[in-house]
Specification:
- By secondary structure, the chain is α+β, with helices and mostly antiparallel strands.
- Helices cover about 25% and strands about 35% of the residues.
- The strands form 2 sheets. It has a 3-stranded antiparallel β-sheet with strand order 1-2-3. A 3-stranded antiparallel β-sheet has the order 4-5-6.
- A hairpin with a 2-residue loop joins strand 2 and strand 3.
C-alpha cells in the first residue's frame, strides 16, 4: 500500500474516507480524535488524561502539502496534522 498522497479524500461528520490507487479506507471521527498527535493531546496522554474521541464529528479536512491532512472537529479542535502514513497505520490497526 502506498503512503503517497491519496487520489481523493472525502469527509462526512462521522468519518474520513481516503482513496489511494490500490485501496479505500474509512476512518471514524471518534477514532481520529482520540489518535490526535498534537502537542496538547500528547501532553494530556502523557499526563494520564487520554483524549476522548466519543461523539467526535469532523467538520473539515485541509490537505497539508503532499504528506498530510489537518482535521477540524466540531468541538473546535484543529491542531492535529495526520500524515498519510499515520492514517494508514490507524486504518490497519482498526
Amino acid at each position: 500500500m502506498s503512503t503517497d498522497a491519496p487520489t481523493a479524500i472525502s469527509l462526512q461528520p462521522q468519518a474520513l474516507h481516503i482513496e489511494w490507487p490500490d485501496a479505500h479506507r474509512a476512518l471514524s471521527a471518534p477514532m481520529l480524535r482520540a489518535a490526535c498527535r498534537c502537542t496538547h493531546c500528547r501532553s494530556a496522554a502523557l499526563g494520564g488524561r487520554p483524549v476522548e474521541g466519543e461523539g467526535a464529528q469532523l467538520v473539515d479536512a485541509i490537505q497539508i502539502g503532499h504528506y498530510a491532512v489537518q482535521l477540524r472537529f466540531a468541538d473546535g479542535h484543529e491542531r492535529g496534522i495526520y500524515p498519510w502514513a499515520y492514517l494508514l497505520e490507524l486504518a490497519e490497526a482498526g
